[in-house]
What we know:
16 strands; Immunoglobulin-like; five-stranded mixed β-sheet; mainly beta; 2 domains; elongated
Amino acid sequence: MQDGGPLDGDGQANGAVVDPVALLVPVPDFTLSLNPTSLTVQQGGTGTVELTLTPRNGFTGTVSLSLENAPAGVEVNPKQVSVTGASPVAQTITVSVPSSVEPNTYQVVLVGTLGFITRQVSLALVVQAPGGGGGGGGTAGTTWTWRSGPLFDVTYGNGLFVAVGGAILTSSDGVTWTRQSSGTSNDLYAVTYGGGLFVAVGGLGTILTSP
């Protein structure tokens, strides 16, 4: 870029070529990440996740934290994280869920703000009803505990429960469930077991088998 006239006041010799890249000043910024990105909390309880705030380009200051898309009454603490140096800051975040929140899976957003800078990270908040199985002393089939959703069908075979819907979940005891990779984004509506094989069917003609 050609320099301006003799009164342009940029400190460059008249007629000198000015590199526009050299005039750019990096803007201080930060990023947010969570571990884990899914949190299960009982109604009226609390849970924790690890927040990492990574400063960039010399960013320092106190970032305010808040939740968006969360049910009424759900809160995070602490509500601020301070950055004083160039290293990432790890902070344990406590999520409190009031007993009035219905059991469900909520896709909430943790937002960090300082001045005009706003950054966010998603969190799957799974709210479960307290009590129920797991040695609670109730008669099987009369007391139920929320585990996950939405799911459309479940079967049992070869010592394993398999539930299907927007995901595939497996459990050896019906209490602790593990998400499995299905290789499809289509919802699965039914699952059965026979001949040593699990078979699940879903939308758009999807048929999955295991093993």
